[in-house]
Amino acid sequence: MSAGNGYEIRLSGTGGQGLGLSGKMLAAALSSEGMHVAQSQSYEPTSRGGMSRSDLVVSRETADYPLATGLDYLLILDKRAMSISEGMINKDALVLVDEELVPEPPSGEFRVHSLPLSKTAISLGNLRVTNVVSLGALIALGDICDLQTMEAAIRRNTPAKYAQMNLDAVRAGFELVNN
């Protein structure tokens, strides 16, 4: 599925995985490509380990409703986060899961891609960039935005001392799909 006139994206997992930052960076990339983006976040009150998600409603025109109701793209970085999207995944949606953190991905009339996202982050030297590795894989699988646009958004939304690490991570995720 290619990103068309309008679609909804959910990045889900647990607190501490950087999903809010990932949503912000992806929203910035899509906005710079001329899309209108409404982003919302939800997380449990615990700082680490509670459910967390970042939703984006993306459209070529102003969205009629700013909250996700039917997911076209779904990232799941923790098996406990699968339940927060049940009943919302559209037919033919693209679902990306971490093969280690989500060993039994959801099934349905959608495409599931299970990739070594956290393993790739560890190979880069930091598990904490799993979220950015995931962004690279998601934009490659879903043709959501251009890699160079995503890199520019990362540069704008990442502290300078982490920029190169995040740029390496998004490229590694992109290459997981394109190699």
Give your account of this protein's structure.
A 6-stranded mixed β-sheet has the order 2-3-1-4-5-6, covered by helices on one side. The protein has one domain: Pyruvate-ferredoxin Oxidoreductase, domain 3, CATH 3.40.920. The two termini are 19 Å apart. It has 179 residues and is of the alpha/beta class. It has 5 helices and 6 strands; from the N terminus they run βαβββββαααα. The model has no long low-confidence stretch (mean pLDDT 91).
Keywords:
globular; 179 residues; six-stranded mixed beta sheet
List the helices and strands and how they pair.
Layout: E1 6-14, H1 19-32, E2 36-43, E3 51-59, E4 71-76, E5 89-98, E6 111-115, H2 117-123, H3 130-142, H4 147-157, H5 160-178
Parallel strand pairs: 1-4, 4-5, 5-6
Antiparallel strand pairs: 1-3, 2-3
Helix pairs in contact: 1-4, 2-3, 3-5, 4-5
Short note summarizing the structure:
This protein has 179 residues and is an alpha/beta fold.
Output the CATH topology: Pyruvate-ferredoxin Oxidoreductase, domain 3
Structural class: alpha/beta
Categorize the overall geometry.
globular
Order of helices and strands: EHEEEEEHHHH
